Amino acid sequence: MKTPELDDSETVVARQRETRGGGTFEFGEGEKGDALIIAVRCQGKGEIEVSVKPVNVGFPLECVDSEAGTSTSTYNQVSVAGVEKKGTVSVQAPSSVRWSMTIGRGEPEQAEAPEPSGETE
Hints:
Layout: E1 11-20, E2 23-27, E3 35-43, E4 46-53, E5 57-63, E6 72-78, E7 87-92, E8 98-106
Antiparallel strand pairs: 1-8, 2-7, 3-6, 3-8, 4-5, 4-7
């Protein structure tokens, strides 16, 4: 299983190759104002839990067991105070699940403005 790819505008700061079960690894410091990008790919039946320190962000990912060799991927961008600091990513996963991860830095995505509804009051 390959590690997830990032966009050309994003900088890779850490990669974790295919791992079975849980694990923890470090990532380096970034520039103030950059977002932290966490891209995870997993395969096998079960759920993994990803935790990012020191910003105390976490998310689950439901992984699938497929004969076709497909994997589940998620791409999360975190733009909270402290994401420019170095930190660690921890994954809790059953031994039946294989996962890989890419950590990056990049420009935060801008929130989209709501679409006008066309209704008048």
